[in-house]
């Protein structure tokens, strides 16, 4: 497991280097360790090495691991969330990154109201308009947020996207630029007028492109392979 410790150290050093280059504070960048298919022992080791936030793509994996992990750790639901699964995680996760429909918002609101818990969410934007990915089309963001302002328990904390995969991360820089532009426009239009809309987090960038994402304004990056190595999908 020593490579996990080394990987975490290297990622933090890379973030420091890019932040100093662009005059940002590396402490402002939240690293979410993506633990899809990663066993509990390796997650615990990563926590011992400084990981404080973990992200899961599937509700089932959250349920399998939740009681075995230190309760001080932040849990993030970063994968597509089906409405019928909301009830299982509404009391467990600190943030849902993948709000992508009014139907899902209504279910989150209903389940959060039942336990009187405000829940932080990010709106997922399909910035490249890929058919294979979920998310709101960039042209529909304002209409979507107009609907969000009426919810009591949902607290919109920012935006999230999954950029297209590219061997050369420079190829996806344009998508990160577009996301930052949307983020800033939403901030100007909504954040002074509505209590439950805040552009605090811009979640974009993964193992292959997180440094470019940070250069373009990300303050949450989601890193799995870069920390834990290649996933074992047979588990």
From TrEMBL:
Pyridoxal 5'-phosphate (PLP)-binding protein, which is involved in PLP homeostasis. PROSITE patterns: UPF0001. One of its GO terms (molecular function) is pyridoxal phosphate binding. The lineage of its organism: Bacteria, Bacillati, Bacillota, Clostridia, Peptostreptococcales. It comes from the Bacteria. The keyword S-adenosyl-L-methionine does not apply. The keyword Transferase does not apply. This is Pyridoxal phosphate homeostasis protein. SUPFAM superfamilies: PLP-binding barrel. It comes from Caminicella sporogenes DSM 14501.
């Amino acid at each position: 497991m020593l490579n996990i410790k080394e990987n975490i150290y290297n990622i933090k050093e890379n973030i420091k280097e890019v932040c100093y280059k662009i005059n940002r504070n590396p402490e402002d960048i939240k690293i979410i360790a993506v633990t899809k298919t990663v066993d509990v022992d390796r997650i615990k080791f990563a926590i011992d090495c400084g990981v404080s936030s973990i992200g899961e793509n599937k509700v089932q994996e959250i349920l399998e691991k939740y009681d075995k992990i230190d309760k001080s750790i932040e849990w993030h639901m970063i994968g597509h969330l089906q409405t019928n699964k909301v009830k299982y995680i509404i009391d467990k996760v600190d943030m849902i990154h993948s709000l992508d429909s009014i139907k899902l918002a209504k279910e989150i609101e209903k389940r959060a109201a039942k336990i009187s818990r405000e829940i932080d969410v990010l709106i997922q934007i399909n910035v490249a308009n890929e058919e294979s990915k979920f998310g709101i089309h960039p042209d529909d963001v304002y209409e979507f947020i107009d609907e969000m302002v009426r919810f009591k328990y949902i607290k919109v904390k920012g935006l999230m996207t999954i950029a297209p995969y590219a061997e050369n991360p420079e190829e996806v820089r344009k998508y990160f630029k577009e996301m930052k532009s949307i983020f800033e426009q939403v901030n100007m239009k909504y954040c002074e007028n509505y209590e439950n809309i805040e552009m605090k987090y811009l979640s974009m960038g993964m193992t292959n492109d997180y440094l470019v994402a940070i250069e373009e304004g990300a303050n949450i990056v989601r890193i799995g392979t870069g920390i834990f190595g290649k996933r074992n999908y047979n588990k």
